[in-house]
Amino acid sequence: MFELVIFFFFAAVAVIGALTVVLHPNQVVGAISLVLSFFALAVMYVLLGAPFMAALQVIIYAGAIMVLFLFVIMLLNVERDEIVVSRPVQRFLGYTAGSAFGLTVSYYLLKAAVIEAPEGSIFLSDARSVGMRLFEAYIFPFEMVSILLLAAIVGALLLTQRDVRRDATGGGETV
Amino acid sequence: MAFDTTDIVLTVVKIAFVLAITLSITPVMVWVERRGSALIQDRPGPNRVGPFGLLQSLADALKFILKEDVLPAQAHRWLYTLAPVFGLIPAVVTISVVPFARSFVIPEMNVFGRTWFEGGRIFEPIIADVNIGILLIFALASLGVYGMALAGWSSNNKYSLFGGIRASAQMISYELALTLAAIGALMGAGSLRLTEVVYRQTGYFVLFGIDWLRIPAWNIFPMFLGFIVFYVATFAETNRLPFDFAEAEAELVAGYHTEYSSMKFAMFFMAEYMAMGTISALTATLFLGGWDIPWYDEPATFVGFLLSGLAFLIKVSFLLFVFVWVRWTLPRLKYDYLMKIGWKVFLPMAILNILIVAILIAFRWI
Predict the structure, then answer these.
(1) For tag attachment on chain A, is the N or C end more exposed, with fewer CB atoms within 10 Å?
(2) How buried is residue B98: exposed, middle or buried, by Cβ count under 10 Å (0-12/13-18/19+)?
């Protein structure tokens, strides 16, 4: 009973937060609503018995990624009248397609999803078991992802360090 | 999870106790800060209200309540009001996973014609002993930055905005060093649970095989590098001098809380000191043995509970005093220098610390 109340409260927070992100004209309010929505999702993970996932959800999405988003929004500081107003046709098509997609997804989820918890399965998602999985069963994709991230970091550095590139080619070249 | 009445009562008592301590950190620390700065600058400091000026904080609080609450005309009304709350909540909640004393057995008692604690009950002096312990602290602490960033943005003031942007950049940068430095201590314990991190530090290190040459098994000794990085990062995370760029009064008036007044300002003030208290408690837990008393075996009784709690309080108070000491001794750094040492010095040092700890564990030296 208690869990049900918590579930419905945070489910409402998550949905309202997500709707605010899409519908509110102010980007900063949108970013904060997304943080709220992520936080409510983390509560869902706790209710499902996966507190480790909940902590990661908050640390990575709410704590790291959204701070960067907010940082960029604040730096750009877009004025309200600079935002391009969409045409009524575009808006109609967008809302129709979006709600059709949402309805279809929820229809098939309700049809196919198993609502009851599987019997007798012990599902562990603490730090130890996740770490073991990552470094034993999924060691190859794990290492591949780190190489991918390294490539991304090097690329980002190359894009920002324009002077270095000019010096390397002997100068005179405009980048 | 099945709770009985005793569990609920004990938890409520623990929450009330910890909340009372956390809330009283701010007035006490304000007094320590004022008298401490006066001591360092060779002047008397506030000494009129109450003995040694101890009631000065009360007078300050009264003043905050009575001041006019100004809402700037161009501010974003909702976010401006919410920002101090965003700052305050993480500072209050994070303390719940820190163990503050040794656990002890409550003996069976017969009070009011009813038997309490049948067969004895172990009292864990921690509000929530969850298996993600420290991750919870990092998760909530990472939300603390929203308070400053939003306050800076919603005030619609260029100084506030600069303060907010600086705060977010600085906290993102130093969060990495802080987390990586803490990993060493967690590797030693093999758990994210802070109670286990403390129990791991209750023994001794016997140096060079000489039996009487014993030092407490505190993490600060094998992980000194990690401790340094962690401790410096805590100054950046709590926006204290020499890293208080979010409010650098010489450049930004008062930074992110320039436009704030009355109780909203007081909430930022409280959040800052509570965050200092939480992070000092975390430093003591991770590196200084938590509630462990060196060269003494705490018994699992009420006396052991009290003594260990006192030891923890002394450690946290010392760390808090160092915050004051450093603030009134060191000048503010340059902003670019802060970023440079954060990424180029402290981050590599934290990674090096992980490597050292891994080697120590591999050879079974700790």
Answers:
(1) N
(2) buried
> How many Å lie between the alpha carbon of A52 and the closest alpha carbon of chain B?
6
pLDDT at residue number B304: 79
For residue B168, the chain A residues in CB contact (below 8 A) are 67, 70-71, 74
Summarised one tens digit per residue, pLDDT across range B66-118 is: 888 778 777 777 888 888 888 888 888 888 888 887 777 777 777 776 776 66
Task: Give ipTM to 2 decimals.
Answer: 0.75
DSSP letters along B11-80, please?
HHHHHHHHHHHHHHHHHHHHHHHHHHHHHHTTS--S-SSSGGGTTHHHHHHHHHHHS-----TTS-HHHH
Q: State how far the Cα of B100 lies from the Cα of B78, in Å rounded to an integer.
A: 37
- Beta-strand pair B204-206/B121-123: unpaired
Cα separation, A89 vs B127, in Å, equals 55
**pLDDT score for A114:** 67
Residue that is written with structure tokens 């303390």 in the block = B95
| Angstrom distances, CA of residue A3 to CA of A9, A49, B46 | 10, 12, 51
Say if the Cβ atoms of A71 and B154 lie within 8 Å.
no
Residues of chain B with pLDDT under 50: 1-2
**pLDDT tens figures, B116-147:** 666 667 777 787 777 778 888 888 887 878 88
- Measured in degrees and rounded to the nearest 5, phi and psi for residue B190 equal 70, 25
- Residues A30, A36: Cα–Cα separation, whole Å: 10
Q: At B253, give phi and psi (nearest 5°).
A: 65, -85
Token pair recorded at residue A122? 């012990």
Structure tokens at A6: 């918590």
